[in-house]
Amino acid sequence: QVLSYVRTEWDPLDASFSTNQPYQVYTVEHSISTDKEPMADSCVYKCSRNKIQCMAVTRIPLRSKAISCCRDVTEDKLVLGCEDSSIILYEAYNQVTLLAQAELLPALITYHPSGAIFMVGSSQGELQVFDTALSPIKIQLLAQDYSPEATLQLSKHFEVPSSLVQIQWAAPQVVSASTDGTGIHDLLLVRFDKGPLGVLHFKLGVITRGQLGLVEIIHQYIRYDEIHEAISVLNTMNWNTMGRQCYICLSAIVNHLLKQKLTPDREAQLEASLGTFYAPTRPLLDTTVLEYRDPISRYARRFFHHLLRYQRFEKAFLLAVDIGARDLFMDIHYLALDKGELALAEVAKKKANDIDAESITTRI
Questions:
Q1: For residues 187 and 350, what is the distance between their CA atoms, to the nearest angstrom?
Q2: Sign of torsion, CA 10 28 94 127?
Q3: What is the number of H-type helices and E-type strands within the chain?
Q4: CA 65 to CA 106: how far, in whole Å?
Q5: Contact between 141 and 171 (Cβ < 8 Å)
Q6: Is 64 helix (H, G, I), strand (E, B) or coil?
Q7: What is each CA distance from 184 to 121, 190, 329, in whole angstroms?
Q8: Is the pLDDT of residue 297 over 90?
Q9: Which residues are listed as membrane-spanning (predicted)?
Q10: What predicted TM-score, i.e. pTM, was given to this entire model?
């Protein structure tokens, strides 16, 4: 029985029911701009009273025609694979488009259920992994020697060439907090035309218990001092819905950086890490601010004293203004006096007195 149908404006590349809104259908349609440039339309259709109506259209500019796509579990991120091997990641909430270049022709794409990574596959049997911030992750088959590569070449293990036609993660029906083997769903089904059929078990490392979640990916990046990639992943996370995971990741990144010698790069990375809470891409709920404000302010204070240790007075002063604590300005005052920075010492003392006066007025 056909309940309803609708004609799409452009040829659909993909159409599926929303997993979060069961009465909505998401499509990705091939479109072109007024300048005849390739685009992809991400459309939302609503099904009600046996009618399908288009509710919203988002036009995403591309460098070449899209040949594959998939959405993450939150349905906020859409990944598109294109004919020129470019990978486009569109984030709906922030309306941000990221671009990366794959090492293969992305005929197949599938997002991991955790939302931390996605897998790209070519019909020739090549696989490549990207994290959710579009940084490529090297992989290799389990072996004694550590020799990861950009892609995994499955076809070289076959005597007869075969075309890869499907890749799909094993998604749990219920999210499990179990740490044993049954609670880890990092299995990837790979199906070739006319066979064979296989399953790959992806492991990130012993320290992370092999799991491929956001926290585990970030800890692995920190382990190899790939801090830019770790912060990029943290930036994609939502404090309002995964506050505990965000806090664990921020703590790990900041603790690692505070152990290092302060350089301009490390300083910028510390700012960016704390900025995921103090200047987030999504406004924080009051409950989120109240829950994490105090523990994160302690990290901000540690950053402040780290700056003072390396005599980064100007940046320390600006951070003290953001924190708004009298004792920090007095710390600057005494250290500036000790270093002969009399003008700065005077300004810091005045700022401390202003905060004192303001707090007295507030009490009155």
A1: 61
A2: negative
A3: 8, 16
A4: 12
A5: no
A6: coil
A7: 22, 18, 49
A8: yes
A9: none
A10: 0.88
